Amino acid sequence: MPGNEFEKKVYSEMQELKLQPSEEVWNKVEKRIRKKDRKRGIIVIFFLLGLALLGYWQQDYLLGKKKTALVKTETSKENITEPQEKIAGNSASNYQNQEKIQEKIIADEKPEIKQLKTNLKTIPGYIPVINKKKEGKVVKNISELDQVKDKFQKTPDPEAMSSQQRKDSVSTINSRLNFKEEAERKKEADTDTALSVIKINEQLKEAPDKIKAVAASDSLPDSVALAVDLAKKLIDSAVSAVQRKPGSNKWKWGILFSPGISSINANSFSIGGTKSADYLSNPNTSGGTPNPSPALPSENKAGFALRLGLFIQKRVSLHSNFSLGLNYSFYTNHIRKGAGRDSLLNNFSQSSVLQDASRVYSVSGAASRFTNYYHLIELPVMFQWKLNKNKTKPLAVNFGFSAGWLVAVDALVYDTSFGGIYYKSKNPFNKTVFNLSTGLSWTFLTSNKIQCTIGPSIDLQLSRLLNSPLDKNKYLHFTGIQSTIIFSAKK
Amino acid sequence: MDYQKLVKDCSREIPSAQRQLYDHFAQTMLGVCFRYTKSVADAEDVLQDGFVKVFKNIDQYKQEGELGGWIRRIMVTTALNYLKKNARYRYDFSFENENLHPVTDDNPEIKMTGKELAGLIRQLPVGYQTIFNLHAIEGYTHVEIGKLLGINEGTSRSQYARARALLISWIKKNNEINFKTGAYAGK
Questions:
Q1: Where in chain B is the domain with CATH 1.10.10.10?
Q2: Stretches in chain B below the pLDDT threshold 70
Q3: Contact at 8 Å (CB) between B117 and A13?
Q4: Could you tell me if A435 and A378 are in contact, meaning their C-beta atoms sit under 8 angstroms apart?
Q5: Å from B182 to nearest chain A CA?
Q6: Cα(A244)–Cα(A265) distance, rounded to whole angstroms?
Q7: Residue A328: pLDDT band by 50, 70, 90 thresholds?
């Protein structure tokens, strides 16, 4: 406080100055602080959606529990041509299910189709074809019902629990309570550490003045004066480091390394394999030799993927960051191909698609595995939102968008001509791709110079991979573990 | 009032606690904002921005210093940012023009209310007004003001001395008018 009398008078008068703000001020403040909650809700929903997609994908492609649409279609085809004896071997319950489902389907159909199917039933040896999708759903529900039933039967009656089981339950609860207490103790310890840091900071701020006073005294020998000078410089640098704001608004740059898997999917969002029904409905779209029953392409299997990149990041608010980047992405996926049929290249007048092809393989046989390679340069725009209040190890959700260019491709494209072929060509591929990205990032290391994060990441391709009527429903998705190192900006 | 509980509830984003905190400090803080701006509407804008910052960063309050002091510092910083960003103030928010107001060591008697005195402070040029507020009322040193505003310590000192002289001349003039009109008769 200033020592002068005038300043004292002004100070005392101004301390008592109070003015009543209008009610509008609070309304605006309230509106702005509530808006934050809505934003957080949207982000959490987006994050949960991303996690659900990730989980669904993992189930389909890593565990291989579900059949893709392609396998289902092939199974369906096999069922149509199966002998009646084999079908008769099915269990009676499954048959009853099929009958019920068929009745339901017929009830939903138009009268003309109903009549046609009734007529078909009168033909000897006719085997009804059931809509696999609907059947799958019902049968799955029945199996789920059985699972629930089994689970219910296996659940122990609390009264019938043995004393050992009770002891186990009590010990589990106790261990959880101990964990909670331990967490609270840790929190208190963290608070103490933070308070100590604040005290040290205050001492550091005062230190240069004290040293100046010592240095100003003439009684010091040269060597001591030199040491004092050195200490002063060191403390100045420490004070400036302490005074530096932790989240400055300067751009920071970083590197990105993200290994994972990539696979071909039928849709940008509903992940579940490619639809081979498209091939059946378009048996001869490419203008090749007509073939009523071409061999279907093999199933696409997920392959290794890698993403390397550079990015710049800027803090937008206390909880959010914005980043721009440049990534090189390398995606693969596997298919099975038959024997080489390069002789067809000399005969390309029969099929327009082979004009730019370099290799041709037969689809039937599927003797060897072939890996499709895609090389992309991508420009991601990402937004990061911090989910917790931990300053040193924050957990954040990422979401954004990227535009990419397919710079090189070494992949086979399917065509129904010549009984079903794979051919190698760059032309059918869309050169520009757009992706939607989401993921989590956990900061596990923070120092003055670097910040390291790691977390799951998922990229959903919004644009089609191929610009071909046969393969219009192919989207290349990526799932991986994204790790980044962010370097602090220079002062 | 239990500030510790109030802060805890505000960090949990309990609306009633937020309203209580606002009601408790709004009047004092509008007084602070009023001294840095030229109109009540601008002061209310600063108050609004300041309280949004307070509620967003309430978990950073360490319960060590006085809560009012912490909120006051936020208001002052918000007011300075407002002056720098707002076009009406940005032009005047310069410390280059050395208006040669004579320096004085007088200590005149202040025969006016706080609001009237604040009104006089607000009539000072923006640069003078800011430095006078920071030094005479908030208690910042000239070194701190220099760092805060990105100016030399010497500039801060000279601007303050001139602001003080100008303000004292106005107070004297005001006292003379009041004396002639008998405004303070019987006091």
A1: 114-181
A2: 91-105, 178-187
A3: yes
A4: yes
A5: 22
A6: 48
A7: very high
Count of residues in chain A: 491
**Pick among 3.40.50.740, 1.10.10.10, 3.40.1280.10, 2.40.50.100: CATH of B114-181:** 1.10.10.10
Does the structural domain B3-89 have CATH classification 1.10.1740.10? yes
Backbone angles phi, psi at A358, to 5 degrees: -105, -30
Percent of residues, chain A, with pLDDT higher than 90: 16
| CATH 1.10.1740.10 domain locations along chain B | 3-89
Determine, for residues B115 and A198 on separate chains, whether the beta-carbon distance falls below 8 Å. Answer: no
Q: Which helix (H) or strand (E) holds A87?
A: helix A84-88
CB-CB contact of A262 with A302 (8 Å): yes
Residue A429: DSSP 8-state: B
Q: Which of B62, B137, B156, B172 to mutate to test the interface with A (most CBs of A within 10 A)?
A: B137
Strand partners, A35: none
**Residue A450, beta-bridge partner list:** A487
A324 token code pair = 């721009």
Distance CA B137, CA B132 (A): 7
Angle between helices A222-243 and A163-216 (to 10 degrees): 130
Which uninterrupted H or E stretch holds B147? helix B142-149
Q: Is the Cβ pair B117, A194 closer than 8 Å?
A: no
Q: Chain A to chain B, count of Cβ pairs less than 8 Å apart?
A: 94
Range from A146-160, A338-352, A410-424 that averages highest in pLDDT? A410-424
Q: Which two tokens stand for residue A29?
A: 């403040």
